[in-house]
């Protein structure tokens, strides 16, 4: 059984382990809600909110690339520089990435960022007003960015289904979330399968680039030598092996509707720490929570452990009420000493931060091995 006790700014999860003793309580993971670190300003490009930041520690600063939403849901990526996990030093008054091409004409959304060798990889969701698809931009200095376009498959549901069901029928949720009520065209554009939440691993594994992506309801993985491989033919062959590429699927009640990649994987001695979002449907709508799993260091397709409860969930006013209610959407994290700081969108309106002991979290994961 799982109980959740809330203090002023902390969540303490306590469980009763029936296999040992009905009366013995075990403290699990203590999460401190550090509060709001970025809010919208009276600037046109972030008039309706700031949320879902990509975060990286580099040099003497923490660099935050956040989604900024203008009126009518047009998004771009803003930039802020922090001198400590919670202390801002500088914030730009104009976006650093913004819609420039047809495939992103309605929004550049939800950045994630890693550094691999000497190159920064910033992935984002490109929204054209109909389709939401994963795209990539790279930089050598965090200032000048080169856009590489959409890097996920661009296909309608019928083609996706035909290829992905080669080895057997898909989970029925793939129909529910991706068939788009069999609408084939909207606003003069083909309606495609949405593939977003693209997140790169921060180093090559066995000489290859790896990234997570999400076609609802599961999280999938890709392994390539170079991004130039991501052609139409690559994705067709990938989808023929689609079921083999699913690395994380909904399992527990708090994530039962669907899941999606969150922060870039964090390398630890115990494995790749994966912070993702889990979603479950309630009478008040979907609830987004921050969840944690552990993957094998040299075989990132292998799940080692997973917390059977959310690491944290909407509980504060600004997480419960906003542009989209009941949302904690983790998208960036850094480590300082033994503290893991997780940055997340709160109710699609502002950016919050939560902290947790990394060693405590890894110890808890070891008690929940797959």
Automatic annotation (TrEMBL):
Endpoints of the signal sequence: none
MF GO annotations: glycosyltransferase activity; hydrolase activity
InterPro entries (UniProt xref): Glyco_hydro_beta-prop_sf, Mannoside_phosphorylase
Family annotation (Gene3D superfamilies): Glycosyl hydrolase domain, family 43
Keywords associated with the record: Glycosyltransferase, Hydrolase, Transferase
Domain of life of the source: Bacteria
Pfam (any one): Glyco_hydro_130
Classification via PANTHER family: GLYCOSIDASE
Family: Belongs to the glycosyl hydrolase 130 family.
Name of the featured protein: Predicted glycosyl hydrolase, GH43/DUF377 family
The species this protein was found in: Flavobacterium terrigena
Organism taxonomic ancestry: Bacteria, Pseudomonadati, Bacteroidota, Flavobacteriia, Flavobacteriales
